[in-house]
Fold:
Amino acid sequence: MMQNIMMQNMLPLNDLLIEEVEAKIATVGTFAALEELKATYLGPNGVLRDVMKGMKALPMEKRAELGKKVNHIKNEIETLCAKKWEELETQTLREKMGDPIDVSLNTRERFPGNLHPLTKTRQRVEEIFNRMGFSTVDGPEIETEWYCFDALNTPPSHPARDVMDTFFMPQDIQMATTSKHGTERYLLRSHTSTVQIRTMLKQSPPIRIVSPGRTFRRDTTDATHSANFHQFEAFYVDENVTVCSLKATLDHFLKALFGPQTETRLRPSFFPFTEPSFEVDFRSTDFGRLSNQWIEILGCGMVDPHVFESVGIDSKKYSGFAAGLGLERLAMLLYGIDDVRLFYQNDLRFLEQF
Structure:
């Protein structure tokens, strides 16, 4: 019957059929109902399919005209169905997401986040040395034996070069980001003193740098030890640098860090790359339960002439000092922390205190 009506009055039926489909689509509420409605008109047994089958009985000129009408109706219905499909998708998503949120409203509580205590400590130390004219220099964490040991006057028999103390890389590994001096092995640096070697190879004295960074050693993790830790080294090379220069620099640093009442003392020690070498203790009258107690804080010394010779600097003309400290130990003293493992556990109850 629909076929006969369309053949008799194609022009008005064109609009009437589209309006009919549009009215039905408006009442559809599910994807399944929409697919069923679409099949009613465009499916293999749908209305338009029946019309196409009946076109064989029409004259050629009528057949072409009816074909245009059917294609137009088909395109309109497909457009209406696609639009409805998008509306149903939007509605489904809105139902899943719930009521809309006004993102312009201010929240009652804000959590801006804090700097890690190790970051705060590094910045604090770095700022003090920067004010004294020291520049901050960084270096690679993956180093080689020459930069980490040989150039720093550390003999092959030294315990620090044993595999039980240092993380060595596989023999056949190649690192494009870390240059070698020869055919030595790669390793994870065990101190930031490697930066002083790379700096002296790049520039001539005077040199005044600090090099904070991460270092690695084969330590068993406990309350005071970690296989991954941070060091901060101060390094100064120029003419006529003496132990007095070293002592004055460290006095100023520790007073700026712990207060003007801070006292320091140097005790003889040994490091392969400094001669003479010292351990530095400090004492403060306003340091909580540790007030008036001598506390070991860092190691230092005058740069050994063999280190200058390894990088081509005249040790008769130039002298220098190096001083290094552990940032974890310093942060533990500054903030009263008794377990180094807390720095690496990402526990908000701990981090929110800083």
